[in-house]
Design a protein that fits this description.
This protein has helices at 32-40, 54-57, 60-63, 67-72, 82-97, 116-120, 153-172, 207-215, 217-228, 237-240, 247-253, 276-287, 298-306; strands spanning 14-19, 22-29, 105-108, 113-114, 127-130, 137-144, 175-187, 190-199, 243-244, 261-263. Strands 1, 2, 6, 7, 8, 9 and 10 form a seven-stranded mixed sheet that branches. It has a three-stranded antiparallel sheet with strand order 3-5-4. The longest helix has 20 residues, at 153-172. A hairpin with a 2-residue loop joins strand 1 (14-19) and strand 2 (22-29). With 309 residues, the chain is α/β, with parallel strands linked by helices. The N and C termini lie far apart (66 Å).
Length: 309
C-alpha cells in the first residue's frame, strides 16, 4: 500500500481529466457487481488526504451496516423494509395496468392464427396478427443518490419506488431505458463523479439489485465514501468528503441533456414520503414527460379504489 490512492493505469474504472480549471475524477461502473468487485480488492487508500477512514469509523446508527457488510450488499442480501417497498410498488403497478397500451389484432395475409370465417369466404386477408409496435426509442435516466441530511427514510423509499415505476411506464410505451445512479461533488478545484449503471437498454429490470443502492443508507455513507477514499485527490477531501452541487452544475458536469431524465433528491422531486400516490403524481409533474407518454393520475385512481369504483 502506497497511501496515495489508485491510478487510471491500474484501475479500469477511473479516468482523470481537466475541465474548465477543474480536475475531474470519474469512476464508471457498468453494474453494481463491478462496485463490489472493486471494493472487495481493498483498493489503496489515499491516506495523504483521508487521515480518518470514515467509511469504517462512522457509527452504525448514522451510516448503517459495517463496511464489509455494506460491500457485500452490492450483490444481494439487503432486505431492510424490502417487503414494504414491493408492496407499495405493486400499488402503483395496479394503476399502470389500467393504462397499458394494448396491441390491436388486425386481419392480414399472414399472421399468428386463422380467421376461419374469412378463410371459408375466400377472403385473401384470412389471418389474424398483432399490430406492429413502433420502433423503440431510447431514454436515459440519471438519479442522484445523495440527499439532504433532513431527508426521511420514507422519502428515500418512495423515490426509489417511483423511479422504478417510471422505468416500467416508459417500457410500456415502447421506450428502451438506460438507468444509472450517480454522485457528483467537489472540494475546491476537484470534482468527484461516480456513475453506476443499474439497467442497460433492453435489459430486464431487477428491483432487488436496484433497491440497495437507491434506498440503503450504507451505500451512500459507506460504499461511496470508500470509493472516494481511494481517489488520488490533492485537495482537502478528508473533512467533508465533498460538497453536493446544485442541479444546474450537476447537469453540466454529468453531461445530462434536455432529452434525459434527471432525478434529484427526494425534496428536489417534491416527494414528501407521506403518500405514495401523491408523491408519484408530484414526481411525474416535476420531470415533465406528459408530452411523451400518457401518464396515470395516481391520486384519482386511488380515490376510485377507495370508493369502490
Amino acid at each position: 500500500m502506497k497511501g496515495t490512492g489508485v491510478q487510471p493505469e491500474e484501475c479500469r474504472y477511473l479516468t482523470i481529466s481537466e475541465r474548465k480549471n477543474l480536475t475531474e475524477y470519474r469512476m464508471y461502473f457498468g453494474s453494481i457487481g463491478e462496485v463490489q468487485k472493486f471494493l472487495s480488492s481493498d483498493p489503496d487508500i489515499n491516506t495523504e488526504v483521508f487521515y480518518e477512514q470514515k467509511s469504517r469509523s462512522a457509527s452504525v446508527e448514522f451510516a448503517g451496516a459495517p463496511l464489509p457488510d455494506a460491500i457485500k450488499y452490492c450483490i444481494g442480501g439487503y432486505s431492510d423494509n424490502y417487503d414494504q417497498f414491493l408492496s407499495l410498488a405493486k400499488q402503483l403497478e395496479k394503476v399502470n395496468r389500467r393504462s397499458v397500451k394494448v396491441r390491436k389484432t388486425v386481419t392480414s395475409f399472414v399472421g399468428q392464427r386463422p380467421n376461419v370465417p374469412a378463410y371459408i369466404a375466400g377472403t385473401p386477408k384470412n389471418m389474424y396478427r398483432l399490430e406492429k409496435n413502433e420502433e423503440k426509442k431510447l431514454k436515459r435516466i440519471l438519479m442522484k443518490v445523495t440527499y439532504e441530511a433532513s431527508t426521511t427514510e420514507e422519502q428515500i423509499r418512495n423515490r426509489g419506488i417511483i423511479a422504478l415505476n417510471l422505468i416500467n411506464l416508459l417500457e410500456m410505451n415502447n421506450y428502451m431505458v438506460d438507468f444509472r445512479i450517480f454522485e457528483v461533488c467537489n472540494v475546491e478545484s476537484e470534482v468527484f463523479r461516480c456513475e453506476i449503471e443499474l439497467k442497460k437498454p433492453g435489459q430486464m429490470l431487477f428491483p432487488g439489485l436496484c433497491y440497495y443502492p437507491m434506498c440503503g443508507k450504507a451505500f451512500v455513507r459507506r460504499v461511496l465514501c470508500r470509493i472516494k477514499e481511494s481517489m488520488p485527490f490533492k485537495c482537502g477531501w478528508g473533512l467533508s468528503y465533498g460538497v453536493v452541487l446544485n442541479e444546474k452544475v450537476t447537469r453540466m458536469l454529468m453531461d445530462i441533456n434536455d432529452d434525459d431524465i434527471y432525478i434529484g433528491s427526494p425534496s428536489e422531486m417534491n416527494i414528501s414520503g407521506r403518500n405514495i400516490y401523491a408523491d408519484a403524481d408530484a414526481f411525474l409533474e416535476k420531470i415533465g414527460i406528459s408530452d411523451k407518454i400518457v401518464l396515470p393520475v395516481y391520486t384519482d385512481e386511488a380515490f376510485t379504489d377507495l370508493n369502490g369504483g
